[in-house]
Amino acid sequence: MTPPLSTPSLLPLLLVAFNICFSLAASNSIYESFVQCLKTRSNSSDNISDIVYSHSNATYETVLEQYIRNARFNTSSTPKPVIIITPLTESHVSAAVICSNNIGFQLRIRSGGHDFEGVSYVSDQPFFILDMFNLRSISINMADQSVWVQSGATLGELYYRIWEKRRVYGFPAGVCPTVGVGGHISGAGYGNMVRKYGLSVDYVVDAKIVDVNGNILDRKAMGEDLFWAIRGGGGASFGVILAFNIKLVEVPETVTVFKLERTLEQNATDVVYKWQSVAPTTDDNLFMRMLVQPVTLNKQKTIKISIMALYLGDVNSVVPLLAEDFPELGLVTEDCFEMSWIESALWWASFGKGTSPTVLLDRESYHVKFMKRKSDYVKTPISKDGLQWLWKKMIELEEPGLVFNPYGGKMNEIKETETPFPHRAGNLFKIQYSINWKDMGIEADKRSRNLVNRLHSYMTSFVSKNPRSAYLNYRDLDIGITKNWSYQEGKVYGESYFNGNFERLVDVKTAVDPPNFFRNEQSIPPRTIKAWNEKNEGSIPPSTSKAWNKSKPYVMIILFMAIGII
């Protein structure tokens, strides 16, 4: 007969049982407390439980994963939120801010899930997700060419609704249709009309935000400093963006697109060298993005460049324009395709010819992959010798690629202090570093990130300095993160993203969110820290304490029963 286990031998099992029981009890208690608070604080208390998901909810994982756009942050080891809130009304958002603050949990705000580092839905601290996908109304007023668009809408939905109303209007924003409006615009927002019209934030005339106290503020109520900050400074540092009021821009009935590819054996180096001086200075109606990729063709390693272009006009104008400005490219009429602006949005999103614009309403059309992105700005052209050296390094690395996005045009006309986004005049083009991979696991992640980091290092002498600038919407935690929510930590990445505008952003943050409730690994810090977690370092968070007090009697009974005391 096997002897009974002694009390000491039971302790490891008891500790596991204790932790499981405590976690479940605490989680349930937090959920109940939060739902009750939400009912009390919200204007519409009906079915509040239907918009709040805890781990025990059968659809929790579905709701969490539907807007994860980077497979790096969809693994078994990725920290998960205690609760997901999917508001249906503005009052739900206001209540969620108040209740999260009262209970003592971080709130991560997700509009489309395209944050490259998963900051909108991952945290190493206990957190809730406020998922804005239900708040996606789009109200268009053609009388003054303005649109109120809620944060949870996607760019594809916005483009489609504009097209529905009038075919000769558009909006200068990104080319990926599943990107959420809230994150895209609050991070500045750029696309293939950047040289003609500038950034998305340059056409924001009003906004609605929920502040740290749960107040719903428009431009007048929030004041010009906060309104300035959320147009490029990242809304999640200051509150919850509910909606933007934007102005539309005119687009011609006919636009032209083309894509040309060259390898090193087909004068790619000459094309890239000339592109640097032409793409930022040519006709403002022309945007020429250039992809640079290491490839193997006929068992020979080489570099392939691809130039994708949008011209706001017809083929008979763009071909002679580039024959004069860029003869090295060799563009001919047969390379070009004329279409409507909405059809060009489909072309840039890699949809086939004849695809209905209704596909822009499909939120599931994005293929999730493992990825890492970085960014840089180039102020002076890279020499041919420099390019040839770069090609050798890229061929050695084999996998990471580069995307060159030209500036100039309208970007040169707007002061760097007009919005928090400072990268205007003086920048020839922006670089995106890109690597994707298929294999899951720590080793594949480490290997791929190391490759793109090496390419980033090789580019040091060619890009901006003091600071080495970066683009907020190409978020890169390698630049720096804050662990203690301090000004000095924030300054490291803050000056890269915002240059001299960082200091004004800090002043705004200090004024509107002194307790630093709205925070993440790269948020704008207040000048003085009044966050709960710093004042009470080492203590149990209030929410955990409350959950423990409520569940302690039951857990203790289980523990005592296990060791034979009762």
From TrEMBL:
UniProt cofactor(s): FAD
UniProt cross-references to Pfam families, sorted A to Z: BBE, FAD_binding_4
Localization: Secreted, Cell wall
A molecular function GO annotation: FAD binding
Keyword Manganese in annotation: no
Magnesium recorded as keyword: no
Signal peptide: 1-25
InterPro entries: BBE, FAD-bd_PCMH, FAD-bd_PCMH-like_sf, FAD-bd_PCMH_sub1, FAD-bd_PCMH_sub2, Oxid_FAD_bind_N
Family from the record: Belongs to the oxygen-dependent FAD-linked oxidoreductase family.
Name of the featured protein: FAD-binding PCMH-type domain-containing protein
Record organism: Gossypium mustelinum
